[in-house]
Amino acid sequence: MAAEIFPSYPPELSQTQLSYLLQTLTDYSLSHGLTVRPAESFVSEKLSPNGSLATHAPVTLFPSPFPRSCWDEGRAVQRGYNELYARVAGNEEWLEKIMVELSEVDDFMARLHKVHLDVKAEGFVQPLSLGLFRSDYMIHVSPEDPRATPVIHQVEFNTIASSFGALSTRVSELHRHLAKMGAYPSDSIINVESIPVSPALQESAKGLAVAHKAYGSGGKGRSTAVFMIIQPGEKNVFDQRWLEYELLEKHGVQTYRISLPDVPKLTKLASGTRALIYSPPHAPNMQIEISTVYFRAGYGPGDYAGEDDWAARTTLERSRAIKCPSVITQLAGAKKIQQVLAMDGAVEKFLVDQSISSRIRSTFAAIHPLDQSPPGMAARKLALEKPDTYVLKPQREGGGNNIYRGDIPGFLKSIPESHWSGYILMELIEPPALENTIIRNGGLMSGGVIGELGVYGAILWRDGEGEERGKGLKEILMNEEAGWLLRTKGRQSDEGGVAAGFGSVDAVLLVD
Q: Which cellular component, as a GO term, is one annotated location (predicted)?
């Protein structure tokens, strides 16, 4: 099957060629910021007591072949996906019914929903919302016909903390550089023209800059800036820093990094306007008005250590700052929403242009509910009796949360049946076979791999105000496809998250 989709790959290297390639890759990665903080299991606290050491991000030795038609299609539908999820977030009546049901079986979803309802009761003061989304796909080849044209099937849609945009730009530059300097065998299919550079770094920064400008001037002559909400002890700091640098150097927008525990210590809401005012610890007398709150944390229950962190999230949601995302937009990215949108007529409710809705629908994999509806009961039977071609997904982001194949029946039996409706059952996608070498923490892992293409999108929209809030978005101010990310993992690994320790950052090698 692999030979029918990809040419013989990867190229063979002599030991001398491999040593040269590895040294060049490592030097380029470290000198160009394709880096992460290493895990404690790799570098002990004794060796790095202040967490200052860094290593290059997990990367592939070779760019991975990817069908050009699949790459084109993923990029082409992204603006439609952006609008779809913005409209889902803006239609509170539709979303509310699902969230009420989900909140009964998922405490984290319930708590997020409560934050939204509490702020709604008080009244929203910011009609603008920003989404920096990412739609993830795998190549699917029909098991019945391996010679069929490969297509993309969606794995999931991310509405919060869609990471690795900056590193995706850097890794595509890395593989292009290696191709330019002749580090790959001259008789291989690897060439500079087939390795496009992902503009995800530039386009994500542009999205934040557009939101910052749309916010307008600060009150009482205050300067304005962007907040980046991060996890304490963040390991993926460089991916975030590149975005911060791009915002400052290309758009003149200052970014401040802050964790949820520091929000009550360093911020306040202005009386009346609820403008979010920040006083940096290095300049406590300075007052900076935050235009946009960009969440790179807050996507999982582990980011909320206690009530103070939930209060901090509520403060940010109450504020006049544009949220990326708002709580309601974060909820729109729940796996349950993905499953409901796969039902007949659901996408068409939000996107009336059939040419767009049908194209989006063509990227869906088979997804089933696990509730007590007739389709849900049928899916429960599949999960318990024929689980080998399915994955069970909870309402979580960040990797490491899914249950696969034969583990599904035992897991379901280990939790109350009343909680099953908090999961969705998704048919596993059948990607073509491919080989590559992953370099992580100084070690090489060669063999079969699977790639996952993530396509970024940036959208800024305006909701209704007052009684019109939640009855559908009123205006789209910006809607763009914003680059791509290829993550590659060992074929034996079900999970693909790079930060979670499962995957690597890769570059697309386009093949026709």
A: cytosol
Cα dihedral 231→236→239→244 (10° resolution): 30
Q: Is residue 296 part of an annotated ligand binding site? A: yes
Active-site annotation holds for 336: no
Indicate yes or no: pTM above 0.85: yes
Which pLDDT tens digit goes with each residue over 173-195? 999 999 999 999 999 999 999 99
Is 429 marked within a binding site?
yes
What are the chain's domains? 15-365+429-510 (no CATH), 366-428 (3.30.1490.50)
pLDDT at 468 over 90: no
H or E stretch covering 203? helix 200-215
- Do you know the residue count of the chain? 512
Q: Examine the residue annotation and report whether 134 is marked as an active-site residue of this protein.
A: yes
Give the pLDDT confidence score for residue 1 in this predicted structure.
36
Query: Cβ-count burial of 48 within 10 angstroms (0-12 exposed, 13-18 middle, 19+ buried)?
Result: middle
158 among annotated binding-site residues: yes
Answer yes or no: 333 catalytic.
no
Six token digits for residue 311? 């209060």
CB atoms within 10 A of CB 219: 15
Q: What are the phi and psi torsion angles at 419 (to 5°)?
A: -95, -5
297 has binding-site annotation: yes
349 labelled catalytic = no
| 206 is known to lie in a ligand binding site | no
Is position 235 annotated in a ligand binding site?
yes
Residue 500: pLDDT band with limits 50, 70, 90: very low
Is residue 499 marked as binding?
yes
Distance CA 453, CA 66 (A): 9
The interaxial angle of helices 200-215 and 237-251, nearest 10 deg, is 60
Give the active site residue among 487, 490, 496, 504: 487
Q: Residues 203, 317, 397, 481: which is the catalytic one?
A: 397
Contact 2, 431 (CB under 8 A): no
Given the DSSP bridges, would you call strands 223-230 and 55-56 parallel, antiparallel or unpaired?
Answer: unpaired
From the list 82, 103, 158, 291, the catalytic residue is 158
Helix axes 165-180, 200-215, angle to 10 degrees: 150
Look up 163 and say whether it is catalytic: yes
Q: What is the pLDDT of residue 5?
A: 66
Amino acid at 413: K
C-beta of residue 192 within 8 angstroms of C-beta of residue 205 = no
Task: State yes or no: is 120 an active-site residue.
Answer: no
* CB count in 10 Å sphere of residue 460: 25
Residue 397 catalytic? yes
Active site residue 398: yes
Token pair 């009550």: residue: 264
